[in-house]
């Protein structure tokens, strides 16, 4: 699991995100999974336009059916229905880890930055390609060879409208938000510095409690549990205190809501894992109360 944002930044959902959804990309992804017509119809939301501006209203970590892969089950609310083709205000979507497929959900800030540039045929560009191991990657230099709507069924969609020829001679279709854009750089969203510092102070105190108060909040036990196979295999996203602490340090969270969402998921996993251990459940409750009290003070 990531403790910081990667180069190229594929989209990983957080609660409260404002995003742009591309129905064409979603359809192509479902087609690539070789689903039957019934499953494809079930997963592809109806009554939506080619491009929809949305907010992540609900987010649950789960396992993608038939694969065992971790995924996010989201409820997306359409933000501007007056200018949208959508006849519904919200819809559900299951998003797996798109290792070998482009993002069909993009942070709105990234989309806005990308659309400021009028890319033209002949322009040089750089695209981030992940390694086959899915860890790390590199920028590839190329040039835009053609620009056109990919599918007539989605005439208003910028999805993969650019054909790029690389220095190797290989070609590939890309969307504008995949290009490195030095003229209008995308600044990754992150929570404000003041609440971040308060969260770091909270974690500093929790770490001290391991030795000073005999791990009264169960921090060490939770970190140790996350190293065990039965814990990792039991939960789609096996979160633990040290990882969340690292994410705060590395400015991973875009809002307090996304931080709280991960904490709630971590504590829910812990309560399930230590279900019959009354002593540990007492520590988990103490930890929940401590974090809740801290967050409540920060809201005042």
TrEMBL record:
Origin species: Brassica campestris
UniProt name for this protein: Bromo domain-containing protein
Keyword flag Transmembrane helix: no
The Bromo domain, residue ranges: 192-300
Superkingdom to which the source organism belongs: Eukaryota
Alphabetized SUPFAM superfamilies for the sequence: Bromodomain
Pfam families reported for this sequence: Bromodomain, BRWD_AD
Keyword vocabulary terms for this entry: Bromodomain
């Amino acid at each position: 699991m990531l403790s910081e944002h990667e180069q190229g930044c594929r989209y990983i959902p957080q609660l409260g995100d404002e995003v742009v959804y591309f129905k064409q990309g979603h359809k192509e992804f479902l087609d690539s999974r070789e689903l039957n017509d019934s499953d494809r119809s079930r997963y592809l939301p109806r009554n939506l336009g080619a491009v929809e501006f949305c907010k992540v209203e609900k987010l649950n970590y789960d396992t993608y059916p038939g694969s065992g892969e971790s995924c996010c089950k989201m409820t997306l609310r359409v933000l501007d229905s007056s200018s949208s083709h959508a006849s519904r205000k919200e819809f559900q979507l299951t998003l797996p880890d798109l290792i070998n497929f482009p993002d069909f959900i993009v942070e709105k800030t990234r989309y806005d930055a990308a659309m400021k540039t009028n890319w033209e045929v002949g322009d040089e560009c750089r695209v981030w390609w992940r390694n086959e191991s899915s860890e790390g990657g590199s920028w590839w230099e190329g040039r835009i060879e053609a620009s056109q709507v990919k599918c007539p069924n989605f005439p208003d969609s910028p999805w993969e409208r650019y054909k790029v020829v690389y220095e190797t001679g290989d070609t590939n279709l890309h969307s504008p938000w995949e290009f490195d854009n030095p003229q209008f750089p995308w600044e990754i969203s992150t929570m404000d510095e003041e609440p971040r510092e308060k969260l770091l102070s909270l974690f500093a105190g929790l770490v001290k409690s391991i030795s000073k108060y005999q791990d009264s909040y169960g921090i060490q036990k939770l970190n140790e549990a996350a190293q065990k196979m039965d814990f990792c295999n039991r939960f789609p996203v096996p979160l633990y205190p040290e990882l969340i602490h690292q994410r705060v340090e590395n400015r991973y969270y875009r809002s307090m809501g996304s931080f709280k969402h991960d904490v709630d998921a971590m504590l829910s996993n812990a309560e399930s894992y230590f279900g019959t251990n009354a002593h540990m459940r007492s520590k988990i409750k103490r930890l929940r109360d401590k974090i809740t009290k801290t967050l409540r003070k920060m809201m005042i």
